[in-house]
Amino acid sequence: MKASKVTQRLYWDEALLAALKEDIPWEDVSANAVVPEDARGTADLIAKAEGVLAGLPVFCRTFELLDGSAAFTLLKEEGARVKAGDVILKLEGNMRAILSGERTALNFLQRMSGIATYTRTMAELLEGTGTLLLDTRKTTPLLRSFEKYAVTVGGGSNHRFNLSDGVLLKDNHIGAAGDVRQAIERARAYAPFVRKIEVEVETLEELSEAMEAGADIVMLDNMKGELLREAVRRAKGRVKTEISGNVTRENVKEYAALGVDYISSGALTHSAPILDLSLKHLKSI
Q1: 81, 117 in Cβ contact below 8 A?
Q2: pTM for the predicted model, two decimal places
Q3: What is the reported pLDDT for 47?
Q4: Are the C-beta atoms of 115 and 150 separated by less than 8 Å?
Q5: Which of 52, 101, 109, 193 keeps 20 to 30 A from 16, CA to CA?
């Protein structure tokens, strides 16, 4: 479920304020010792590596929460590809606020841009295949909204945002219910009729049971080789298919070639390295 921009802004503000409080519990001793209270200055946000930008609104909002007069001149747009040395934006505001917010703002922006960069490389590999790239719930606790947003900036799509978002019956749900059919039947009876039901299957027998019980989507979890190819062949035209489990840049194109509808990858959020960015050239005005 996508949050509205208003809801997202409120969630982001809450998270950003918590992060700022973590870094500035009562004062920034260094900034307050060196800089007069009303001093104003400018600084440049600079890329130190090649990648895709995601999180510029978050970066800017961090400083706005500390300084209502903060102003920004954007030289690169959200989702743009940058290279080392590019100036991304120019910041003007209270110098204490710039110094105090720098690390928190960069932490969010570097993390989100790293996810967008990794996602973009995978999304480009899937161009023209008809297969949709999805993220997972393997996100940093309390930062899911930021990380899933970054996936979309990079060209991926969001799977479930949380456990309230949709029905996905995995191996432990099936074990608790008794078998695939019982799990699907119980989910169909409980969930609103507009909800799709996705079921994780690991064998051809479970696949057949899921299709016969009326699953909308089957997640072919950690299937390999001939087993995977046969599962996709049997499901073709009967049910939507998703491949999941150890999907990386090295194998995503091979999986897409099988003709699956979706490929989900936890690596988009849990294995993406940060994009190196820096706030430089702070000077008074």
Answers
A1: no
A2: 0.94
A3: 98
A4: yes
A5: 52
At 125-170, the pLDDT tens digits run 999 999 999 999 999 999 999 999 999 999 999 999 999 999 999 9
The catalytic site residues sit at: 103, 138, 170, 200, 221
Mean pLDDT computed over 40-58 = 98
For residue 109 the two structure tokens come to: 């922006």
Tell me the residue ranges of DSSP E strands in the chain: 40-47, 51-52, 71-74, 81-82, 87-94, 132-134, 167-169, 197-201, 217-221, 240-244, 262-264, 277-284
Which pLDDT does position 1 carry in this prediction?
A: 46
3-state secondary structure of 28: coil
Domains of the chain: 5-121+273-284 (3.90.1170.20), 124-270 (3.20.20.70)
What's the pLDDT score for residue 222?
87
Which has the closest alpha carbon to 239: 193, 185, 199, 189?
199
Q: What is the four-CA torsion angle of 47, 139, 258, 195, rounded to 10 degrees?
A: -130
